[in-house]
Specification:
globular, alpha+beta, 9-stranded mixed sheet, 9-stranded antiparallel sheet
């Protein structure tokens, strides 16, 4: 019993050690980027969560950083050192180091199954039992070449990253030296790290020399960085001394009466200012800001950043060179945005100005743990209070909230600010830029994923071949009845079973080419070159931004040719994201004249001449603009108005502003634009004599810019004072609080105190959000009329916002301020608590008016959408705009047309989930007769046709959220599947990604997502292909995408031309690669019939080694890089050709099997033609020696096989020119060259002089040409019959192009006469919604007697095919061309916009 207990205790002690070892292995695998199983991930995560002392668990907890204060006991370990370990600021984006490159790269490469297989073959051949005929070193050459090329490519790519990392880590910055940082542990530098430091120093010297050479070669007219300071933003005092009666508009002495006590009646809320300086402390004087490298920065350091320098780590701002603690940063390295953003220093650090003040500061920062959210940070700066004598009072703890507004993120650049002093809170991998720099989701193309099926099939064939050889050879060597028993020395194995096993593995070595090792490296080479072609396509180069189409993921170019669904953002993607203020509603009166693209679309749907109407309307707008400018010049001298930049045109507005319509309307107009000049977060910058506003969104810049143009100029903001000039009068407003805009709030608010000491809240946001917060008992008629006017603006394609206000008493404000301060100081759930407190004050609002901004479509968007739709691609628009705006943009960009019936899926929030499901089921059954069953979903997966153009679905984001969360996903997906167009309005980024995920996984289709903003990143990464547009909202989407383009219109060529080409090329290349492997390998197998299946070599081993590497690889690679069935122009003119990619016809498995069967047949011809000639006809060479040896037979078989394989690949190419034919000839010549040269060498042993002996016999040449003809004739016959009687779409178009019936694309549009019935024409596979009025086929009947008939009823293009092959023909296994059906209906909708005007008696915002 005791023995059992002893064993169990030992087992218990042993199990934890096994678990610890297992966890260590998991961590090692994670560091080596080896994917872990889900169970391993869960176990590792649970261990880290349970072990609170682990580094991973501590990283997930909030951190407290102490400055010039001792760490509390809870932050110390047993040795008195800081318990926490913070990562160094040194970052490494490179995958390898000089020490681990070789083992790690080889390890990662051999995760590829094919590489493992060929390594196994090399090992087999090292055993003489299996590979005694082959030199193991020679056998390893193909594997070494493939692995070596990949390693060199990885090394070059990683070396660039390493150089960038070294350059960045060794960037100098200023850090406070001789400062005792209590937050970090005593650092031990190991010998390995010391060695790495020496290596880094060598690289640093190399970079310095390289940069010095660049500087020497730089042109002398280059502007040095120091000279940029002359272009910095001018000081406040020098710019804005705008008024004669105000020597300094920011003079605090003038503001004390205004903002302090007024007539002794105003209650003053004051407290002693928070200050982190301990004025009783005595500094050592040894602390100085000295230059160090970025990699030496640690958490808890004081750093000083100068103008135009990048921020080395995530830093909390203590003070800046600006008197008000303001600094400006550029965040293009983080989100791609180039506009400047404003950041504020902590008020508690306003006295931290130099080294001495840093040394005398006493405070601590409580920070949230590291996270990847770039738009949120929660922390608090705390310090002790001061007594009246200036001593620290530890009984008082003051706290100031630290938010993103007080944080400088690593990678940002400091602009227009001389210096910033701050403390480091996150370094290295904990910084937000590094947490966001994780690799995007690994995407593999569909053909690459399906390639595994082809490889597995070949493995099965290989196994069967080796099994046959093993069984037959074992039986053949069994017993003594065979004659070889008396002449051979015996078998290797000694028994039948052992002989069979040896022969099996020898066969694996012999037939290894059935799994082509060079296929993977060839595909990688081909896709790299395809990406280069895309990058250098001048048609996708945007000159304005000097930006080409930039591939980020090079391995999915073939997926571009199989896209069935495109999900697009609207703002900045379909539109220019250049906002222009066009109209507004003030006190119920609409102002503004505009003729938008949506209005032009409405005119076309109503049967009006939109072009003539546009000319008339724009002529009127020009006249009204001149009149308005003249009136404004007479009203006030606004020197900031630039006439040509005025977008808001309404002379009636100036008329009413001047009081011609009454004092009430004049005050309403004044209050409206003054509110626009105050409620914002823009930065005013001076460019010459102009003021330019830099805002975080184009909408806000347009609103403040229009207020400036009409006379309400926001001059600048200094800390909490906003200076405006309204109609020539300068006013100052105290900015008390600002509640920023978020995607969840959809509004922003400011609380200001004017010169008359009134507290006013101004709120602007989406009309639905503002209307929910209006006082229900006030302005009922004004709210109704304004809502109708905003709806009219939305119908005209304009983006609408509402402006509202609320007057507060001083007691109401300070009561709310106390709650807001507490919420702002929260470390956890700060945003939620702020939103709750904001709702308290953003209520019972008074409506001021509404704005309407136009976001114009990008050039070429309607044509691009029409082109993609003609190709069979379904486009869904996912936007945050309201439903009416999205609908009208849909009409203006050709996504919607008048023939469609719009299904608006928008219900009240009070509608229960069962009721919503009933409504959805009713839509599905009423419009399409479907019930939403799983059987219908399976049928929908097989249906790839474009839905009939009779319905379009428009769904609101609130409804979409409920549909996606519940059990209605299948019904919703079927409803969308039946609609030709789908618009999802007011959707969040997460909802966009969820819609893409639903369609991609449920329908098993290829999806593409395109957007331009950070809110589109989730959608882009979720789709199979992500396209980012480099636009006004920055480059966040482009940085996360697989391809980056500058304009939406480039998408049509990227998909319809490059995508279709690359898909066809890769599909053909893969099939031909496996075909040639089958031909070559089975010729070896047929030889085993006459050799007792003993796995003996027919060819010289150099043939086997060089076949896939040299003799047959170039033609296939050229096919994958260079082949094209039709040129780019034809691909864009006939987009219906793209449908083959959607149906995946060129990569179907039946085509692959067809190529395998063809290869099987040709292997029979290649071997048996040669064998039968040699076996039955005795031929002697000139030296008298016969040509019946095994090596001679190998030459007889190899020569025609290689010629057939290369010629077959050339025959499958659609484009023959000098280059492709030259590559074919070069591949053939390499065989003849190698055979002739190598056979002359004594090293060839039995192969010696084979070429000179065999090439001189007539039998060889007879076999060569006879074999080539016999192998290729069936393929040639099949292709001829197929193109004559069952042509593909491309065959029809190519023939038309070659016969000059499809050539003159740029000529004038012709008229196609109505066709008459003809018995000379039959059906075609190309039945498409063809646009006859714009097609180049319209000129064909005039140019050629062999007419192309246009069937106006089926809208199909019918080729010249004999009538004997009617519509009931059955296509071959390679057939399957698309069948498009579409009908155009004309049912114009009716729009009845209404306008109204009411007055308001609310007290205006105008200062007194």
């Amino acid at each position: 019993m005791s023995e059992l207990s002893t064993k169990s205790s030992r087992l218990k002690n042993w199990v934890p050690s096994l678990k610890g070892t297992r966890l260590k292995l998991y961590r090692l695998a994670s560091r080596l980027n080896i994917p872990l199983a889900d169970a391993a991930k869960v176990e590792l995560e649970q261990h880290d969560n349970n072990n609170l002392e682990s580094w991973t668990a501590l990283q997930r907890l909030p951190r407290s950083l102490y400055f010039n204060l001792a760490l509390p006991e809870s932050e110390l370990d047993d040795t008195g050192e800081a318990k926490r370990f913070y990562p160094r600021n040194k970052i490494r984006t490179a995958k390898y180091t000089p020490l681990n490159f070789l083992p790690k790269n080889i390890f990662l490469q051999f995760q590829n199954v094919a590489n493992l297989f060929f390594l196994f073959l090399v090992i087999l051949q090292c055993i003489k039992l299996f590979g005694n005929q082959v030199n193991p070193g020679l056998a390893a050459v193909p594997l070494i070449v493939v692995v070596g090329i990949t390693a060199v490519k990885d090394a070059i790519e990683d070396f660039r990253r390493t150089m960038l990392d070294i350059n960045l880590n060794n960037t100098p910055t200023l850090r406070l030296s001789n400062y005792n940082n209590p937050n970090i542990r005593t650092e031990y530098v190991s010998y390995v790290r010391r060695f790495k430091k020496r290596v880094s120093a060598l690289f640093r010297v190399f970079l310095m020399k390289k940069n010095r050479k660049k500087e020497q070669n730089t042109a002398p007219d280059t502007v040095p960085l120091e000279d940029l300071s002359s272009q910095r933003r001018p000081s406040y005092d020098s710019i804005f001394r705008e008024s004669i009666d105000m020597a300094d508009p920011f003079d605090e002495s003038k503001g004390k009466d205004e903002y302090g006590v007024s007539d002794g009646k105003t209650t003053v809320h004051q407290q002693r200012a928070m200050d982190v300086i301990d004025y009783q402390a005595v500094g050592s004087g040894q602390c100085q800001f000295k230059k160090v490298f970025w990699k030496d920065i640690r958490v808890g350091d004081f750093v000083k950043v100068s103008e135009n320098e990048e921020i080395p780590a995530d830093i909390v701002i203590l003070n800046t060179s600006d008197p008000e603690g303001i600094c400006y940063i550029e965040t293009k390295n983080l989100d791609g945005e180039t506009n400047l953003k404003i950041r504020h220093a902590l008020t508690a650090g306003k006295n931290v100005v130099d080294e001495m003040s840093c040394e005398r500061s006493r405070f601590w920062v409580e920070s949230e743990p590291p996270n990847a959210n770039l738009y949120e940070y929660n922390g608090a700066c705390k310090c002790y209070g001061h007594t009246e004598t200036g001593m620290l009072d530890e009984s008082q703890v003051h706290s100031e909230p630290v938010s993103l507004d007080n944080l400088l993120l690593r990678g940002c650049a400091l602009r227009n600010t001389k210096w910033v002093i701050g403390v480091v809170v996150f370094t290295g991998d904990d910084t937000k830029i590094m947490l966001n720099s994780g690799a995007p989701p690994l995407k593999r193309s569909r053909i690459t994923r399906n390639l595994n099926w082809n490889v597995y099939l070949n493995f099965i064939i290989l196994f069967a071949m080796c099994l046959v050889c093993g069984i037959v050879e074992g039986i053949a060597w069994r017993g003594h009845s065979r004659s070889s028993y008396y002449f051979e020395w015996g078998s290797i194995g000694g028994s039948a079973a052992k002989n069979g096993i040896v022969t099996f593995f020898t066969g694996v070595v012999l037939f290894q080419n059935l799994v082509p090792i060079s296929l993977y490296i060839s595909i990688e080479i081909v896709k790299t070159i395809q990406a280069i072609f895309i990058y250098f396509d001048k048609d996708m180069y945007y000159k304005k931004l000097k930006y080409p189409c930039t591939p980020k993921s090079w391995n999915i170019s073939d997926d571009l040719g199989q896209v069935e669904y495109i999900f697009s953002d609207k703002t900045g993607t379909l539109t220019q994201n250049v906002m222009e203020f066009k109209k507004c509603s003030i006190n119920g009166v609409p102002y503004g004249e505009a003729f938008t693209e949506a209005m032009a679309g409405i005119a076309r749907r109503e049967g009006k001449d939109s072009e003539q109407l546009s000319v008339e309307k724009r002529s009127f707008i020009d006249r009204d603009r001149m009149q308005m400018i003249a009136q404004m010049r007479n009203t006030s001298d606004n020197k900031y108005l630039v006439d040509e930049n005025l977008t808001f045109v309404s002379s009636q507005f100036v008329h009413d502003l001047n009081g011609k319509a009454g004092e009430e309307q004049s005050m309403a107009c004044y209050e409206f634009f003054l509110a626009l000049a105050l409620c914002h977060s823009v930065v005013a910058d001076r460019v010459g004599d102009r003021i330019v506003y830099k805002a975080q969104s184009p909408d806000e810049a347009a609103l403040v810019g229009t207020a400036r143009d009409v006379g309400f100029v926001f001059l600048d903001q200094r800390r909490d004072v906003m200076v405006t000039r309204a109609l020539g009068e300068t006013h100052r407003f105290k900015l008390l609080d600002s509640i920023d805009f978020t995607s969840a709030r959809k509004r922003m608010s400011v609380v200001i105190r004017g010169p008359d000491n009134r507290y006013v809240l101004i709120c602007k946001g989406a009309d639905s959000v503002i209307y929910d917060r209006l006082d229900p008992g006030e302005q009922p008629s004004l709210q109704k009329v304004t809502a109708e006017q905003l709806k009219t603006f939305a119908l005209e394609g304009l983006r609408t916002l509402c402006i509202a206000k609320r007057e507060l008493t001083e007691e109401e404000y300070f009561e709310w301020k106390e709650k807001y301060t507490a919420a702002s100081s929260a470390i956890e759930n700060r945003e939620e608590r702020i939103a709750e407190v904001a709702d308290l004050i953003e209520s019972r609002l008074t409506l001021i008016g509404g704005t309407a901004i136009e976001d114009r479509l990008q050039d070429g968007v309607p044509d691009a959408i029409a082109l993609l739709g003609s190709a069979g691609i379904k486009l869904w628009v996912l936007t945050g705009d309201k439903m009416e705006t999205a609908i009208n943009i849909g009409f203006s960009c050709n996504l919607l047309d008048a023939s469609m019936e719009l299904i608006k899926f928008d219900v009240d929030q009070e509608t229960s989930t069962p009721e919503l499901e009933v409504i959805l089921a009713d839509y599905l059954y009423r419009y399409f007769g479907l019930s939403g069953s799983n059987e219908e979903l399976e049928a929908a997966k097989q249906d790839h046709d474009v839905p009939a153009g009779s319905h379009a679905l428009i769904i609101d984001g609130g409804v979409l959220k409920r549909v996606l969360e519940g059990s209605m996903r299948t019904k919703f997906l079927l409803l969308c599947k039946q609609c030709k167009a789908v618009l999802c309005c007011r959707v969040s980024p997460a909802q966009k990604a969820e819609v893409v995920h639903l369609v991609r996984d449920s329908l098993d289709v290829m999806t593409l997502a395109i957007g331009d903003g950070a809110n589109d990143v989730a959608m882009i990464q979720k789709a199979d292909i992500g396209i980012g547009i480099v636009g006004e909202e920055g480059r966040a989407a482009a940085m996360s995408a697989d391809y980056a383009i500058a304009q939406f219109r480039y998408l049509s060529k990227l998909v319809l031309v490059h995508g279709r080409w690359d898909y066809n090329r890769i599909a053909q290349m893969v099939n031909n690669f496996f075909y040639k492997s089958v031909v070559w390998t089975f010729t070896l197998f047929w030889f085993q019939i006459y050799n007792n299946f003993d796995a003996n070599y027919l060819f010289d081993y150099t043939y086997i080694m060089l076949f896939n590497l040299i003799f047959s690889s170039l033609p296939v690679i050229v096919m994958g890089v260079y082949d094209q069935d039709v040129n780019a122009e034809v691909s864009l003119k006939i987009p219906q050709l793209y449908k083959r990619g959607i149906l995946q016809l060129n990569s179907a498995r039946r085509i692959f099997i067809g190529y395998m069967i063809d290869g099987f047949y040709q292997s029979v011809i290649c071997f048996f033609f040669s064998f039968l000639v040699i076996n039955n006809v005795t031929v002697a060479a000139q030296n008298g020696r016969d040509t019946m040896g095994m090596q001679d037979l190998g030459v007889y078989v190899a020569a025609p096989t290689i010629m057939v394989v290369d010629s077959y690949v050339l025959l499958n190419q659609a484009n023959w020119d000098v280059f492709s034919v030259g590559i074919w000839a070069l591949s053939c010549i390499t065989f003849w060259f190698w055979t002739g040269v190598y056979s002359q060498s004594w090293y060839s042993i039995e192969f010696y002089k084979s070429a000179s002996r065999i090439f001189r016999t007539p039998n060889f040449w007879a076999v060569l040409f006879g074999t080539i003809a016999s192998c290729l004739f069936p393929k040639f016959l099949f292709m001829t019959v197929q193109k004559l009687f069952w042509p593909y779409d491309t065959d029809i178009i190519r023939e038309s192009y070659r016969t000059r019936r499809l050539q003159n694309f740029d000529e004038e549009e012709g008229v196609v006469e109505s066709p008459e019935a003809s018995t000379d024409w039959a059906s075609s596979t190309l039945q498409v919604p063809f646009n006859m009025s714009t097609s180049s086929f319209a000129t064909m009947q005039k140019k050629d007697k062999d007419h192309v008939r246009m069937d106006t009823h089926s809208l199909s293009l019918t080729p010249s095919i004999p009538n004997t092959f009617g519509r009931s023909y059955s296509p071959s296994f390679m057939d399957g061309s698309p069948v498009f059906t579409d009908e155009l209906l004309n049912r114009p909708p009716e729009f009845h916009p209404t306008r109204g005007s009411v007055s308001s008696s609310e007290q205006p915002l105008r200062p007194r």
